[in-house]
Write a structure and sequence with these properties.
elongated; four-stranded antiparallel sheet; alpha+beta; two-stranded antiparallel sheet
């Protein structure tokens, strides 16, 4: 998840977000740009969900953006082998094109 801070967020606001994230078991990475600061939060499921609810209304926070990929469980990163399904004797998903 990425926390986008408001333009007028103070150092104390950013530190508060980092502290809250760590309380939830997440690792926080602060990136300061010319006009805006973002805080990247790294962690797993429940901790991210808990952090979202506890961070979104904090002072200086503009918005929270999830960064998980859709269809993660069927991606090549998660499942490298081809999925082959047979329907009425025809193999779909194999190396041959089905006409």
């Amino acid at each position: 998840m990425v926390v986008i801070m408001k333009r007028d967020a103070t150092e104390a606001d950013v530190a508060g977000v980092v502290e809250r994230a760590q309380e939830c078991g997440l690792v926080a990475h602060v990136s300061k740009g010319a006009e805006r600061t973002i805080v990247g939060l790294i962690g797993h499921g429940v901790a991210v969900g808990e952090a979202h609810g506890r961070i979104e209304s904090m002072p200086g926070v503009e918005s929270l953006v999830p960064v998980t990929k859709p269809f993660k469980l069927v991606s090549r990163e998660f499942h490298e082998e081809d999925t082959i399904v047979e329907v009425n004797g025809v193999r779909l998903g194999d190396s041959e094109v089905v006409a």
